[in-house]
Amino acid sequence: MIDLAALHADAISDEQARLVLADYSESQGQDVSAELLRCPLRGPAFASGIVRDDCGRLWRDELPVRRKTRKRVDKMTAEESALMPGWAQKWVDIGLRTGKVDRPLFEAAVHAIYRHAGVLGPDGKPAVPRVSWCPAPIIASWAGAVWGTLGSGSVHSQVDLQVHSQVRSQVDSQDLDRALPSTWAGAIRSSWADLFGGQFWVGSYYWWGPAAYTFALDVLRLDIGKTSELLARAYAATCESACWWYPCRDVVFVSERPTVLERNASGGLVVARWEWIEDDGSPANWEVRP
Amino acid sequence: MPTILERLACASAELQHAYDAAKQQERLRLAAAIRATQLALNACYRLLGEKAGAA
Questions:
Q1: Interchain CB distance below 8 Å, A132 and B33
Q2: Which chain A residues contact residue B55 at CB under 8 A?
């Protein structure tokens, strides 16, 4: 008798366990799972979310079942309109989350995005990105900018980030220029902002951000076509699961959530702080103040 | 000609000096920015090392 729960747990970090689980999945007719488990790059990420429906759907390109979908929505009913405040609050809460990221969900989502967006790796084949977790957004964005100079450029094609003055002032520091080779300093200066906002971009523009379009998908039951919906749901999952992320061809640098998000009485940001423990055990942090 | 890994290690060591100096001068925001850059380079170093190991 196979101990499936133990095998699932071991498969996250143990390649042999993943291969055993792949054989078992195949014997159960789960060929996609078997293939994912056998892949050296995707296997560990897939295994980390293997018992979760939300992760499994993203890996297997499945959509939640929706009945009576609509091709267009010209008018909302009173009942649908009444659901908007609660829906908005759910996404506001996601945007303000602190603490642990949801690594299995983010990794499933970002692999799905690369797949559906047709991102090609440096070798010209469909990209299978590695995910590099960084303790703060500034580290993710600067690592992405430097990585872009090492033969694997950013794949962010629609950068629309308002430049954060505090980050810019740090990027513009002459001391950094002296300490870094000019190529990397230049790359950081020119392309640090090629990133996505994760939890901080849940709102975005009219009917564009995940807060709005998931309302259209899940409440208004709008049919936007399978490929678009897969991509939309994968992008929404990145916003639900982590903070800023920087996509390169073969690597995604992604930041942990803030440890502290302090707001004033009217809801304005007082400070967002990322705290972590360095390898030598010393505490470190990076913070943003408006 | 140094390899990319060597260049990353070298730049990280340079940044350590800059970081120590900034901390000594109590330029804490600069120190934090330098440390962030160093961690970014270290992330690249780690990934390149993994890729080289896998090849």
A1: no
A2: none
The answer to whether residues A68 and A221 touch, using CB atoms and an 8 Å cutoff, is: yes
User: Could A170 and B22 be called an inter-chain contact, meaning their C-beta atoms sit closer than 8 Å?
Assistant: no
Classify residue A265 by burial, with Cβ atoms within 10 Å: 0-12, 13-18, 19+.
exposed
Q: Which of B18, B30, B43 sits opposite A132 (nearest CB)?
A: B43
B7 contacts on A by Cβ (under 8 Å): 181
Asked if the Cβ–Cβ distance from B43 to A253 is below 8 Å, we say yes
Once rounded to an integer, what is the mean pLDDT over residues A3-11? 93
CA closest to B36 among chain A residues: A139
C-beta atoms of B18 and A184 within 8 A? no
pLDDT in tens, A202-255: 776 555 678 888 998 999 999 988 888 898 899 899 999 999 999 888 899 999
Query: Which ipTM did the prediction report?
Result: 0.88
In this prediction the pTM is 0.86
**CB of B37 closer than 8 Å to CB of B15:** yes
Query: For residues A186 and A190, what is the distance between their CA atoms, to the nearest angstrom?
Result: 6
Which residues of chain A have a CB within 8 Å of the CB of B14?
Answer: 179-180
Q: Which helix (H) or strand (E) holds A113?
A: helix A103-117
| Residue A109 DSSP class | H
Backbone angles phi, psi at A260, to 5 degrees: -130, 135
Query: Which residue's structure tokens are 């490929």?
Result: A227
Instruction: Rank A119-128, A172-181, A192-201, A274-283 by mean pLDDT and report only the highest.
Output: A274-283
Per-residue pLDDT at A43 exceeds 90: yes
DSSP-assigned letters across all residues of A205-218: STTTSHHHHHHHHH
- Min distance A99 CA to chain B CA atoms (Å): 20
